[in-house]
Amino acid sequence: MKKNETKIRVRYQETDQMGMAYHANYLVWFEIGRTELMRSIGLPYIEFEKSSLYLPVLKAYCEYKHAARYDDLLTIITFIESLQYVRTVFNYEIRRDDKKIAGGYTEHAFINEAGRPVVLKKISPFLWNRLYKALESDT
Question: Strands (DSSP E) along 46-136, which ranges?
Answer without folding.
Answer: 53-54, 57-64, 73-83, 87-96, 99-109, 111-112
